[in-house]
């Protein structure tokens, strides 16, 4: 059996794949990688299906040993990682010989870095997915973030290794944004014109309490909606709720499945991965777009991900 | 813009990958029945490209794969489903009994709730446990059932400051709702008691003890019975 050993786990490292859809009626949200684009690219760099389970590191990476060796790639944000002290590049696959240790440090760019290994990380699937749901303690490795000394099984590095990287030119178009594009939320009519103006013309700061459930924002309060409290309803990924204090919360991958705050807007699908790279204290803005643009931006992103020129084999 | 769909139901684009179907804006048994019927129909005859359903009091959020489906197309498919709702028959609801140890450390807010309503603990427990509740829907976290309606005499606002961690199995009230915390999560509902029964277990076939549409009755138990059931 090949394995990966967490010598130090990092600040918050979890097993994630593309999440579990279809269990909303039980109150189970999909969870899954916060930056799906990075997970998908990382898996393809190491010859996996794009949804294979990988490690998601947050803000501060850990040290991981490969006692039997492994083929791996790092994607997402730059955590200044090394393999036995040799610097590693993001968006590139490597072969680690048995006994090598990968060390990742504090982030030098966004919030999350993915460690994808050939064969994927093996954990018992829960409702068809390896994703960790931290709040409820379900899925992933024992329903929790990794701890020092955890040993995870990985797939054997069977295929002959071919170093692969991502086209820098194409990657440019897939990098996370700080200007988040939004479509109107189901309660957009509940907010005054001036509320909408405040929402789209001010920048907001990501608060420290942000996590995989939701991103709390600080900044200019948005006038309370005129209709008061609403009856709880199903809420979508990326929904921008306005709290009683007038501040936005963006619902994220471990979101509650229903909620009672009015939603002024919803982040578009093409910008979900950008949410996964936001750090506390980052400044963001919202840019309203129409439904047609939301759709074409997603199709463009998928076209880029499907393009055969995305990967360069050496 | 919301479009009237059928028989008072409305469609709204909630995001670029979800559509909200609402049956009015009041919590009623009729709206609940409509939600349940639409859910059953969508479960028995799934729409290709629909990947998740979030039912609530009087609405269902339908999440779809935007690469396979668009709002307008889904809307016209759902119109057909809505027309057929009146022909959907729902089975008689299950009655699930949940044992609860009320008061003391099990229900640290029972005293306050009694004081607010000028009730003795015995009266409050009697009121809470003599009602048969409906599971309007599950939401918030895995296995959390929104139960209603609470007897008028127990209707109490949420705590002004939510607890950071509510003990697993806590039986709580807020507004005219009651519910059981399936895992130790933050929470702003007032805690009346605790059940030793697991509400959500990943190793069990029926993961969640409760499902939308179930009926629930709480049965008071002693601390000794709680300990015995917890061991079982």
Q: Could you please describe the fold and organization of this structure?
A:
- The complex is a heterodimer of chains A (314) and B (232).
- By secondary structure, chain A is α+β, with helices and mostly antiparallel strands.
- Helices cover 14% and strands 30% of the residues of chain A.
- Chain A has helices at residues 36-45, 168-171, 193-201, 272-275, 291-306, and strands at residues 2-8, 14-16, 54-58, 63-66, 70-76, 82-83, 86-87, 93-96, 100-103, 112-117, 121-122, 151-154, 164-166, 179-184, 204-206, 214-218, 233-234, 239-242, 248-251, 258-259, 263-267, 283-288, 311-313.
- Chain A has a seven-stranded antiparallel beta sheet, with no helix packed on it. Chain A has a seven-stranded mixed barrel with strand order 14-21-18-19-16-15-22. Chain A has a five-stranded antiparallel beta sheet with strand order 2-3-10-5-8, with helices on one face.
- The two termini of chain A are 29 Å apart.
- Chain B is of the alpha+beta class.
- Chain B folds into two domains: 3-87, Gyrase A, domain 2 (2-Layer Sandwich); 95-231, Cyclophilin, CATH 2.40.100.
- Chain B is built from five helices and twelve strands.
- Chain B has helices at 29-44, 71-84, 110-117, 121-129, 223-231; strands at residues 3-4, 10-15, 18-22, 50-55, 59-64, 95-102, 133-138, 145-148, 170-174, 177-180, 190-194, 215-220.
- In chain B, a hairpin with a 2-residue loop joins strand 9 (170-174) and strand 10.
- The longest helix of chain B has 16 residues, at 29-44.
- Chain B is elongated, with a radius of gyration of 19 Å.
- The mean pLDDT of chain B is 94.
- Chains A and B meet through strand 17, strand 20, strand 21 and helix 5 of A and strand 2, strand 3, strand 4 and strand 5 of B.
């Amino acid at each position: 059996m090949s394995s990966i050993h967490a010598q130090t786990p990092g600040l918050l490292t979890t097993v994630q794949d593309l999440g579990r859809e279809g269990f909303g009626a039980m109150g189970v949200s999909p969870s899954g990688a916060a930056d799906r684009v990075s997970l998908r690219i990382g898996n393809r760099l190491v010859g996996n299906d794009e949804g294979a389970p990988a490690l998601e590191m947050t803000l501060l990476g850990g040290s991981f040993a490969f006692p039997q060796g492994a083929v791996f790639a790092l994607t997402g944000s730059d955590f200044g990682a090394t393999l036995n002290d040799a610097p590693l590049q993001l968006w590139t696959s490597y072969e680690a010989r048995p006994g090598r240790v990968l060390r990742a440090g504090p982030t030098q760019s966004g919030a999350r870095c993915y460690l994808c290994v050939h064969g994927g990380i093996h954990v018992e699937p829960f409702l068809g997915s390896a994703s960790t749901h931290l709040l409820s303690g379900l899925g992933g490795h024992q329903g929790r973030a990794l701890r020092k000394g955890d040993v995870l099984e990985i797939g054997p590095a069977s295929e002959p290794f071919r170093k692969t990287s991502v086209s820098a030119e194409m990657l440019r178009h897939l990098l996370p944004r700080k200007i988040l594009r939004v479509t109107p939320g189901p309660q957009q009519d509940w907010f005054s014109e001036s509320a909408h103006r405040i929402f789209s013309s001010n920048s907001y700061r990501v608060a420290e309490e942000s996590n995989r459930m939701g991103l709390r924002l600080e900044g200019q309060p948005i006038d309370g909606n005129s209709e008061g409290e609403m009856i709880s309803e199903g809420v979508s990924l990326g929904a921008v709720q306005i709290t009683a204090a007038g501040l936005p919360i963006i619902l994220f991958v471990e979101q509650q499945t229903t909620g009672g705050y009015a939603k002024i807007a919803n982040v578009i699908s093409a910008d979900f991965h950008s949410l996964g790279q936001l750090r506390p204290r980052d400044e963001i803005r919202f840019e309203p777009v129409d439904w047609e643009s939301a759709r074409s931006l997603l199709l463009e992103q998928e076209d880029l991900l499907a393009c055969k020129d995305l990967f360069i084999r050496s | 813009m919301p479009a009237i769909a059928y028989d008072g139901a409305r469609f709204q684009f909630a995001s670029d990958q979800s559509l909200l179907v609402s049956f009015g804006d009041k919590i009623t048994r009729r709206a609940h029945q409509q939600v349940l019927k639409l859910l059953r129909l969508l479960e028995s005859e799934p729409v290709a490209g629909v990947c998740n359903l979030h039912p609530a009091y009087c609405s269902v959020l339908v999440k779809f794969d935007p690469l396979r489906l668009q709002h307008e197309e889904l809307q016209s498919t759902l119109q057909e489903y809505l027309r057929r709702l009146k022909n959907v028959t729902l089975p008689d609801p299950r009655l699930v009994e949940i044992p609860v140890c009320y008061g003391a450390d099990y229900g640290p807010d029972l005293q306050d709730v009694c004081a607010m309503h000028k009730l003795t603990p015995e009266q409050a427990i009697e009121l809470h446990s003599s009602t048969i509740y409906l599971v309007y829907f599950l939401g918030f976290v895995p296995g959390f059932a929104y139960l209603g309606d609470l007897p008028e005499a127990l209707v109490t606002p949420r705590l002004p400051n939510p607890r950071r961690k509510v003990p697993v199995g806590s039986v709580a009230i807020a507004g005219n709702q009651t519910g059981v915390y399936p895992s130790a999560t933050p929470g702003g509902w007032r805690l009346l008691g605790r059940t030793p029964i697991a509400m959500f277990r990943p190793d069990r076939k029926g993961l969640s003890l409760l499902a939308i549409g179930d009926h629930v009755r709480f049965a008071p138990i002693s601390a000794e019975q709680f300990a015995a059931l917890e061991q079982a």
